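Final report, closing paragraph on structural work. Over the funding period we assembled a curated collection of sequence-structure pairs, and we close with a single example.
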Amino acid sequence: MQEKGRIIKGIAGFYYVQTAHGQVYECKAKGSFRNDKMKPLVGDYVRFAVVDEEKKKGNIELIEKRKNELIRPAVANIDQALVIFASIHPEPNFHLLDTFLARMELLDIPSLICFNKSDLDEDQSIYQEIEQIYRESGYPIIYTSAKKNQGIDELKQRLKGKCTTVAGPSGVGKSSLINLLQSNVQMETSDISQKTARGRHTTRHSELIALGENSFIMDTPGFTSLRMDEYEKEDISRGFREIYMQEGSCRFAGCSHIHEPDCGVKEALCQGKISKKRYDSYVMMYEECKEKRRY
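Its predicted structure, as stored:
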């Protein structure tokens, strides 16, 4: 007997597939997927053969066509990305955030930025910097405090009716926020290390969690570094919407926006239309991809 469902979790070669009736089957993937270099991902819609109805076991036989897929984190069929950083403790790594946002832009996946622990930013210095950089770049921003239960209702509204991948570095309160958004799955949390001011990874696998009707979040392991080297250097500007918008005013076609004269992007930078931090992130990613070609 063949059933249809969606992969909600994958651990050590086992895939947990939930059907439309809410039943969850522990499945293995056919060997042919490995031969085709295709791995089932959390979020995939699949067809599977039931091999033991009583024990709810099966074999995945078909992966339906994906709407989209991410490599890091490895998930499929998402509507938007929620990237979570802490406002402070640890202070946000803006280049890491820009890298994640650029990857989503290149995949045409809308991003929502959440800064947690906003109650700790007492002098509002980080808040002002965030607003200047990201609100002006056109990204929606939500400020939350998992500790004080602030901003959770607004966040729930942003997630309603969508399948959202949730990602962020360790120690930013990602698991605590997910626990506040729903009560079915309680994620393990951990405190920041006083010695290193970093968090410990508490999410060890990707998991699809229901928030309500047609609303899901994909919790994923924390990321500490992302590279763009699977892209060509010419692609990078499309990852920065405010830079891409200025390309038509450059004197030369194929302008890198780094060394060329009469560059519309550099002119916009001088006029304050583009954040210096965002531009620096763009240059770092461009040079990273350029170095890849050399080797």
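The radius of gyration is 21 Å. Helices lie at 31-35, 94-106, 125-135, 152-159, 174-181, 241-244, 264-270, 276-294. We thank the funder for supporting this effort.
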